[in-house]
Design brief:
about 230 residues; alpha/beta; Rossmann fold; 4-stranded parallel beta sheet; two-stranded antiparallel sheet; 10 helices; binds zinc ion
């Protein structure tokens, strides 16, 4: 009993020292968080986060064969921008875990394989990583479903979709992907992972490419979606 108390006090002190040395910072506004919150996001910033409820997820799954975790609000935009362009890839790690937990809670479907939306090798070299790979890796860890990083390849270095309308996005992504390991995907049910679902053009082009080799069950799950009604 005495030992337990001493051990407890020791851990408490160590924890305080570590917190002092490395305080948690809000991943949106970068201010120090003094009280521990889920997501390492401060109370002010988390007010902007809208997590989809079960009914919306179910409706979207029926309609589009997939669903998203967050509505794409201003703070989610900042967060995605930070991990894509400001060398903060570690944010994607936290969010990938959250995606896994959220997906499990919704329990709408399961699959054999996870495929992150690939980026072109030139863009990967420039950015240093593919954000969807990181989301998929952590998502996979939570769910225990393997990730296939290599079978779907982005062969076309498309221009950034931002600012394009739906038709332009479809045109921009036409024949952008290809399959290199056909035998790895045949007969599997697949979840495509991405950060944002906007018009669905990217997910649909990936789906079309995978479907072209005869795979039938293809779903998606994204971190965020710009559509609040499904
Ligand atoms: Zn904040």
């Amino acid at each position: 009993m005495v030992n337990k108390t001493i051990k407890g006090q020791f851990l408490y002190v160590i924890n305080k020292i570590l917190n002092f040395a490395y305080p948690d910072k809000c991943i949106v506004c970068n201010k120090i968080i003094y009280d521990t919150l889920d997501f390492a996001i401060c109370r002010y910033c988390i007010g902007d986060f809208y997590i989809f409820d079960r009914e919306i997820c179910e409706n979207n799954f029926e309609k589009n064969k997939g669903f998203s975790m967050f509505l794409y609000t201003e703070n989610i935009r900042k967060l995605i921008h930070a991990f894509k362009y400001d060398d903060c890839g570690y944010y994607a790690k936290v969010l990938g875990i959250k995606m896994g937990e959220f997906f499990m809670k919704q329990n709408l479907f399961s699959a054999d394989l996870i495929i992150p939306v690939p980026i072109h090798k030139k863009r990967r070299r420039k950015r240093g990583f593919n954000q969807s790979d990181i989301l998929a890796k952590e998502f996979s860890r939570v769910l225990g479903i393997p990730v296939d990083y290599n079978s779907l390849v982005r062969k076309k270095n498309t221009i950034v979709q931002f600012g394009l309308n739906k038709e332009e996005r479809i045109e921009n992504l036409k024949d952008a992907f290809m399959i290199v390991n056909k035998e790895k995907l045949i007969g599997k049910s697949i979840i495509i992972i991405d950060d944002i679902y906007t018009t669905g053009a990217t997910i649909n082009e990936c789906r079309k490419t995978i479907q072209s080799i005869g795979v039938q069950e293809i779903y998606y799950f994204t971190l965020s979606s710009t559509n609040d009604i499904c």
